[in-house]
Amino acid sequence: MRSKEFSLARYRRHARPAIVLVALVIAAAWQCEVNFRDLLKGIAKGLSMLAFFFPPEWRAFPEMIHPALVTVIICVIATPIGAALSIFFGLAGARNLAPPWLRLLCRSLIAIERGLPEIVILLILVAAFGLGPFAGIMALAIGSIGMLGKLVSDAIEEIDGRVLDSAAAVGATRLQVIRHVVIPEVLPSLVSHSIFRFEVNVRASVLLGAVGAGGIGYELNAAINQLEYNRATAAALTTLALVFVSERASDFLRARILGGGTV
């Protein structure tokens, strides 16, 4: 009897949140004009469109190597720049190192950047610098600062205060504390997160390339706009291969850095 009462109590405890969640989903679906009849029609139409994309244009694969390398180079340049700058933002945004006004300023800048998608940043940079990989590099570097800067700040704030106090007690200056205590403490985490950010940048650069940053994303968008669907399939498959390789390389490197063994 007790087990039934216990189960009933658990059911009642979760029933109200479930009802609220279902109500929110229904309200959102109504607001967005979700129509399951159109969904089924759209699925059927989409499946019929797949015939235009297959088979892929096999002779286009060699032509996709250079755009794919451009995408990789963009990420290789942008990620270290963002990681290096995130150290300064992380130090300035840490509660146990920076004064309150500086921490508030840096945390606000990081929050603003994280609230802006990379594509919005790219459109602003394209207006300033024009189309091309440079705008994509800057957009991804700024995006990396938003993510890595917050992670670095959080990692610094998690350092045991007694360690910092001990270093200061033996006469170390603020710069010496940062150089010999803070940086060695957060560097492994920063490197690991930077490798993961590189993986994120590879995926983001495909989207940015479609709006003017160059690379494989530009080739994919151009093929679709010119109704060359078989060529678009070749670009899409190249993109999938690029993302898969970057993910495996990221997993391998992070496992080696964190001492997790083989992947």
Brief overview:
It contains ten helices and no strands. It is mainly alpha-helical.
CATH topology: MetI-like fold
N-to-C span? 49 Å
The radius of gyration over CA amounts to: 24 Å
Overall 3D form = globular
Q: Estimate the helix proportion, in percent.
A: over 70%
Query: Residue ranges: pLDDT <50 for 5 or more in a row?
Result: none
The domain count comes to: 1
The main sheet comes to:
none
- Please report which band the strand proportion falls in: under 5%, 5-15%, 15-25%, 25-35%, 35-45% or over 45%: under 5%
- CATH architecture group name: Orthogonal Bundle
**Helix/strand/pairing category:** mainly alpha
Number of strands: 0
Question: Can you identify the CATH superfamily?
Answer: MetI-like
Helical segment count: 10
Order of helices and strands: HHHHHHHHHH
Question: What's the pLDDT, averaged over the residues?
Answer: 80
Q: In CATH, what is the class?
A: Mainly Alpha
Would you mind describing this structure in some detail?
This protein is mainly alpha-helical. The chain has one domain: MetI-like (MetI-like fold). Helices cover 81% and strands 0% of the residues. The protein is built from ten helices and no strands. Helix 3 crosses helix 9. It is globular. The relative contact order is 0.13. The model has no long low-confidence stretch (mean pLDDT 80).
What is the secondary structure topology, with strand pairs?
Elements lengths: L1 H30 L4 H14 L15 H28 L7 H16 L2 H12 L3 H25 L3 H9 L4 H40 L2 H10 L3 H29 L6
Helix pairs in contact: 3-6, 3-8, 3-9, 4-6, 5-6, 5-8, 6-8, 7-8, 8-9, 8-10, 9-10
